[in-house]
Amino acid sequence: MNPLVGTIVGLIVLLIIVGLAVLTRVKVAGPNEAFIITGRKGRPVRNPETGDISTDMSGQKVVMGASVFVVPFVQRLHIMDLSSRRIPVGIRGAVSAQGIKCDLEGVAIVKVGGNEDAIRAAAQRFLTQQQGIEV
Q1: Reported pTM
Q2: Which of 35, 62, 76, 85 has the fewest CB neighbours in a 10 Å radius?
């Protein structure tokens, strides 16, 4: 076998492996979800209201409705569902203003705000509890 052919085949295999590695690390957020990428600090961010640029030291990047490349071994991807959620609320043995005992049941419908700050705050509080909240 000619060494040139072996080199070309090796380069083609290497390009295919690198291409597959890149494709598996590119993620695309759907319209009802946000990606929170952790593991990177010191990213400059622009305040949309004032236009000021500051350094984000939280180590979190929020991506909504776009694609992102997640660096292996350095960054971690978390997915937050932005759909409305139903949370059942019940009170047993409540006493009304007239002194009558009653059992109350209700439903709270909540939704995470659509800006980066609201998503970042919700992720810090509820990211690991998403499965326990009824959709």
Answers
A1: 0.66
A2: 76
